[in-house]
């Protein structure tokens, strides 16, 4: 098997990732139990840590799929350790997505792992490698929203319910943005293997600017409104109510005054 060509140490989970998981668990417990004196801080730390975990899993999914597709170099690059510091663009993969969550409450697709595409054989494998990352966000969103669409919210503390709703919103926005067929994003990576050589050569120079182009479009009120209409439709289909999402974001921004409608559960 392909995985046999990677050393054991190249596949061991990084202590950095274990530490992030620990922060997620502790702050999740604090949010659930109301242990924190200021619930907003617990929500902020829990959502941020869980968001970073999802970013690591997103990149791991790309790397692991590439490994099975034929790129045996991903192990030596540290991509299989879930260590965010090993990514080719740690700033794009971790720092900027976290900043965008803090500033705008939107899941920014990160930059990432460098796959040696010449080692991959078959167009379907190339497409699957690109799709693996955002599909991880889809799975993460399904887990976060499970209590909502399963009707299992009885006994779930409000702060934790709010945090899950906001975290799910980040995963849905990240998945939707990543699946856009725009050069530089995973959605384009899915369809690229099926395009002609001429088209790929013409599009290639625009790849570094794809994400900037998307966010420039999102500044347009009409595009922004249409985008979040789609997000709202998806969240409602998952039975995540607007109130929980709104209050989740309000509690996340603990440095701002929490609306009175959201503070009764604190």
UniProtKB/TrEMBL annotation:
It is a multi-pass membrane protein. Keywords: Cell membrane, Hydrolase, Membrane, Metal-binding, Metalloprotease, Protease, Transmembrane, Transmembrane helix, Zinc. This is Site-2 protease family protein. Coiled coil: none annotated. InterPro entries: Metallopeptidase_M50B, Rip2-like. PANTHER family: ZINC METALLOPROTEASE MJ0611-RELATED (PTHR35864), ZINC METALLOPROTEASE YWHC-RELATED (PTHR35864:SF1). It is found in: Cell membrane. The keyword Transmembrane applies. Belongs to the peptidase M50B family. The chain crosses the membrane at residues 12-32, 38-57, 90-115, 127-150, 162-185, 205-228. GO terms for molecular function: peptidase activity. One of its GO terms (biological process) is proteolysis. It comes from the Bacteria. The keyword Hydrolase applies. Its cofactor is Zn(2+).
């Amino acid at each position: 098997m392909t995985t046999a060509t990677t050393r054991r140490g190249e596949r061991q989970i990084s202590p950095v990732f274990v530490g992030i998981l620990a922060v997620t668990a502790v702050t999740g417990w604090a949010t659930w139990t109301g242990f924190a004196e200021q619930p907003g801080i617990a929500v902020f730390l829990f959502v941020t840590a869980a968001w970073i975990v999802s970013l690591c899993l997103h990149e791991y999914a790309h790397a692991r799929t590439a490994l099975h597709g034929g790129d045996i170099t991903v192990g030596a690059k540290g991509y299989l350790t879930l260590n965010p510091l090993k990514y080719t663009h740690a700033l794009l993969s971790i720092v900027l997505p976290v900043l965008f969550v803090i500033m705008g409450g939107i899941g920014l697709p990160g930059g990432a792992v460098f796959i040696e595409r010449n080692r991959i054989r078959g167009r379907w494998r190339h497409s699957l490698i690109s799709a693996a990352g955002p599909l991880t966000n889809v799975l993460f969103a399904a887990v976060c929203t499970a209590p909502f669409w399963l009707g299992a919210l009885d006994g779930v503390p409000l702060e934790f319910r709010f945090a899950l709703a906001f975290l799910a919103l980040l995963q849905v926005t990240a998945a939707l943005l990543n699946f856009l067929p725009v050069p530089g994003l995973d959605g384009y990576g899915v369809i690229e293997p099926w395009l002609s050589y001429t088209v790929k050569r013409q599009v290639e120079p625009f790849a570094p600017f794809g994400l900037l182009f998307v966010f420039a479009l999102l500044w347009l009120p009409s595009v922004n409104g249409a985008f979040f209409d789609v997000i709202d439709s998806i969240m409602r289909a998952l039975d995540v109510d607007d109130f929980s999402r709104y209050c989740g974001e309000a509690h996340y921004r603990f440095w701002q005054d929490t609306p009175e409608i959201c503070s009764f559960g604190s």
